[in-house]
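> forwarded from #structure-qc
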């Protein structure tokens, strides 16, 4: 008789005792068969080890409670803030973005700069009308973007023009945000209080992404979960750790910290520009922090799986530094981490099945916090393996696009070639 078991004490307990009573003289012959490391059991041990490292060895990235920054007024000196908003064909959302920015409640003054990046819709006009509607036209500047130079990404070129315009206002802080973000009225106050209290060079919030449709419910919480898995906020905040990251939709930056990095010029070709900026600032000695927004949210809907797929494939292979070796490693790692635990449930090894269940339990528990942050049913935490497969396929497609010379597609521009 042969049984598989896991753990030292459990192994001793599950040793098989075989008694042969047919020996001459009626004497007992006792022998023991020890558990054998079958292939399913080895796979289960690997899977469990992976999830133990993910849950306990990556700065508790999955804990929303540790990263959530509640909106508050805070106490700090009067400050001048200049918000820079690059906008390209954002007629559907720009009014709400501008209105929310100009209604910020904080101890200081705010000026908003919209950089119209060659929109073919009424983005600039709608932005101006939104400011006029609330009597804040003087606090808004709208500039027309210049032609895109070779080697620059469209967004960073627009931001760099906005920063030049912002220099005239001598701001204490720069708010770099997107044209599809609706900030709560205390966002700037919350960010400034955090930055002043902890002397941060870059303070960033991952706003709550749009999550109403079926594709969004399945993929958006997973997107933030995977982002924090790659960039654990606790490691980002640790000055001794190399990890640096930020969320481009909401970044409060000190102008002097930005100047030490040579501004947008130093990262002008990066399509994952937020993390590139965080790396540059942290590398120059600045303190960086990333958290989750309590109330600010994205207005951009993803009402189909195709739209989410396009969002992922735009940057995924760039994240892997265009390395085929890293791509292969990612494929293997994702299959081991998210697919193998499910496959092991079908194995005939009781021990492997038990270990797989434990690993799946760790997976679901770590994902549950993000699912609840998005106000979804806890049952959605069971969808993580399927979401991982979707992201894996989009990552491969991202590599394919790059190999064929049209990577990083965004609003009609191929920015990763």
């Amino acid at each position: 008789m042969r049984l598989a078991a896991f753990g030292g004490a459990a192994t001793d307990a599950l040793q098989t005792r075989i008694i042969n009573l047919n020996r001459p003289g009626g004497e007992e012959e006792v022998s023991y068969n020890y558990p054998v490391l079958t292939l399913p059991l080895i796979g289960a041990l690997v899977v469990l080890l992976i999830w133990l490292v993910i849950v306990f060895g990556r700065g508790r990235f999955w804990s929303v409670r540790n990263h959530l920054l509640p909106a508050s007024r805070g106490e700090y000196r009067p400050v001048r803030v200049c918000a820079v908003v690059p906008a390209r064909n954002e007629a559907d959302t720009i009014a709400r973005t501008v209105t929310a920015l100009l209604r910020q409640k904080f101890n200081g003054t705010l000026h908003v700069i919209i950089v119209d990046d060659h929109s073919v819709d009424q983005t600039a006009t709608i932005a101006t009308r939104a400011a006029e509607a609330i009597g804040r036209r003087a606090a808004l500047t709208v500039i027309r973007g210049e032609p895109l130079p070779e080697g620059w990404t469209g967004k960073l070129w627009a931001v760099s023009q906005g920063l030049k315009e912002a220099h005239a206002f001598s701001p204490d802080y720069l708010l770099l945000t997107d044209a599809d973000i609706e900030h709560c009225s205390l966002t700037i106050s919350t960010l400034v209080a955090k930055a002043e209290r902890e002397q941060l060079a870059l303070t960033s919030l991952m706003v709550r992404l749009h999550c109403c449709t079926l594709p969004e419910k399945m993929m958006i919480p997973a997107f933030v979960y995977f982002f924090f898995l790659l960039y654990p906020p606790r490691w980002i905040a640790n000055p001794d750790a190399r990890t640096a990251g930020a969320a481009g939709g909401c970044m409060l930056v000190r102008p002097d910290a930005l100047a030490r990095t040579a501004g947008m010029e130093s990262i002008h070709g990066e399509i994952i520009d937020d993390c590139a900026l965080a790396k540059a600032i942290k590398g120059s000695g600045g303190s960086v922090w990333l958290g989750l927004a309590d109330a600010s949210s994205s207005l951009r809907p993803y009402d189909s799986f195709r739209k989410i797929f396009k969002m992922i494939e735009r940057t995924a292979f760039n994240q892997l530094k265009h390395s085929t070796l890293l791509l292969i490693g990612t494929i293997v790692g994702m299959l081991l981490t998210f697919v193998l635990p499910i496959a092991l449930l079908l194995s005939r090894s009781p021990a492997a099945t038990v270990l797989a269940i434990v690993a799946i339990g760790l997976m679901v528990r770590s994902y549950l916090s993000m699912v609840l942050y998005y106000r979804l049913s806890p049952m959605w935490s069971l969808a993580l393996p399927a979401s991982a497969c979707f992201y894996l396929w989009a990552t491969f497609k991202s590599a394919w696009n790059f190999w064929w010379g049209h990577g990083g597609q965004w609003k009609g521009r191929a920015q990763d070639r």
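QC bot note: The chain has three domains: 8-36, 40-63+312-416, 66-305. The mean pLDDT is 90.
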